[in-house]
Write a structure and sequence with these properties.
Blueprint (H helix, E strand, L loop, with lengths): L1 E6 L9 E6 L3 H11 L5 E6 H11 L6 E4 L8 H13 L7 E6 L1 H13 L5 E6 L2 H7 L4 E6 L2 E8 L4 E5 L8 H17 L11 H6 L2 H6 L2 H21 L14 H10 L7 H18 L5 H13 L12 H8 L9 E7 L5 E7 L13
Parallel strand pairs: 2-9, 3-4, 3-5, 5-6, 6-9
Antiparallel strand pairs: 1-2, 7-8, 10-11
The chain binds nicotinamide-adenine-dinucleotide.
């Protein structure tokens, strides 16, 4: 399996880049990275766990490595500064390169460092979680968190290339694997709205491939990554900076972010927050006449097949969740923007007045 997807952003010619997807050995990946960065100084940013697992085989020079501890709470201004200082100590110039090897945390942080170091330096993404492979490594959203909110400071800054190797996904623990799959399911519900020239029928493909998901079968992994990234590339090429269409990628995220925040990024991973956000928004869609019961049932059945069930929210302050939703970055002072499922695989943008009462409902309605 060896695929290439080109992300073309017409507004900025230099922001077009390839995504390589394959299952070759990790050692071969290192050779490719060495070739690609030949003659340049490098700063290689690893997530701690990935370094433990793959540091030896990737065998970068210790001097060029920065190891970022694991966890959402590492996407901080303090770590941003530490990495910038490392880049300065390596005397990186604008002609040099940063390589991010890890999940979305490392990717977001490295991308933001790259966007601001000397007003912009090349960076390469090597995503090692399913979530980073299907979503965060592509599209150029980079960010760090602030005490008042997640991804509060950041930039749109595209990588020069993305190298995806499905072998990394074999060592992901079950929780992280399932978290990434939450974003895959999201793509199944927005497929038609992505205006992609290809018809993938991701929803139907997922309905019949649970076994391959469980086995982490390479062909299955390459296929879902290929589909999600083609859909994302299609959206991002039409709207790089989220002025319009790109908002659809936020399906499930307004509720998901609130759930992540209220549980302090410990109980729920990002993808699991998103799946709960999908359950919430499908309930909203059904109750407010956006989608019919048949599609609602189909959506809940798919989430059930992959083992996502509405969790017990009894210990969660539901009122706080609803309040947090209203502080979402995509809203303004008076209105909240929700992305809502309507017809099969289609979503619509829906603005509601912030004074409007929102009800909390994630459970399946018979
Ligand atoms: N930029 C975007 O467009 C975008 C989109 C979605 C999410 N995000 C961001 O992505 C972050 C979440 O990313 P994530 O879910 O990848 O989590 P993560 O980066 O925290 O990684 C999860 C855990 O998996 C470990 N890990 C990574 N690769 C591994 C491997 N191959 N084997 C074993 N363990 C491995 C990591 O070390 C970490 O402990 C959030 O900060 C979110 O805001 C960004």
């Amino acid at each position: 399996m060896d695929l290439t997807i080109d992300v073309n952003i017409p507004q900025i010619e230099s922001s077009s880049y390839p995504i390589f997807i394959n299952d070759e050995t990790i050692a071969k990946l290192k050779e490719t990275l060495d070739e690609k960065t030949q003659g340049k100084k490098r700063l290689v940013i690893f997530s701690q766990k990935v370094y433990k697992l793959y540091g030896k085989i990737l065998n970068f020079d210790k001097k060029e490595i920065f190891i970022l501890k694991d966890g959402e709470n590492q996407k901080t201004l303090k770590n941003f500064q530490k990495i910038i200082e490392k880049a300065i100590s390596l005397q990186l110039s604008r002609k040099d390169v940063i390589i991010a090897i890890g999940g979305g945390v490392v990717g977001d942080m490295s991308g933001f460092v790259a966007s601001s170091y000397m007003r912009g330096i090349e960076y390469i993404q090597v995503p090692t979680t399913l979530l980073a492979c299907v979503d965060s490594s592509v599209g150029g959203k980079t960010a760090i968190d602030m005490p008042n909110g997640k991804n509060y400071v950041g930039a749109f800054y595209q990588p020069s290339a993305v190298y995806i190797n499905t072998n990394f996904l074999k060592t992901l623990d079950e929780k992280q694997y399932k978290s990434g799959f939450g974003e895959v399911i999201k793509y199944a519900f927005i497929e038609k709205s992505c205006n992609c020239s290809e018809n993938y029928n991701l929803l139907e493909y997922l309905q019949t491939n649970k076994e391959n998901y469980e086995k982490r079968e390479d062909e299955f992994l390459c296929k879902i990554i290929e589909i999600c990234l083609n859909l994302k590339a299609s959206v991002v090429s039409q709207d790089e900076k989220e002025a319009g269409l790109r908002k659809i990628l936020n399906l499930g995220h307004t509720f998901g972010h609130a759930i992540e925040e209220i549980t302090k990024y410990k109980r729920y991973t990002h993808g699991y927050g998103v799946v709960q956000g999908l359950m919430y928004i499908f309930n909203y869609a059904l109750n407010n006449g956006f989608c019919d019961k048949k599609y609602y049932d189909k959506a809940f059945t798919l989430m059930n097949i992959y083992g996502y069930h509405p969790d017990k929210f009894c210990f969660i302050n539901k009122k706080k969740v609803m309040q947090l939703m209203k502080t979402d970055k995509k809203s303004d002072s008076t209105t909240l923007t929700l992305i809502v499922p309507s017809q099969e695989k289609v979503v619509v943008e829906h603005k509601i007045d912030k004074t409007q009462e929102l009800t909390f409902s994630v459970n399946y309605q018979n």
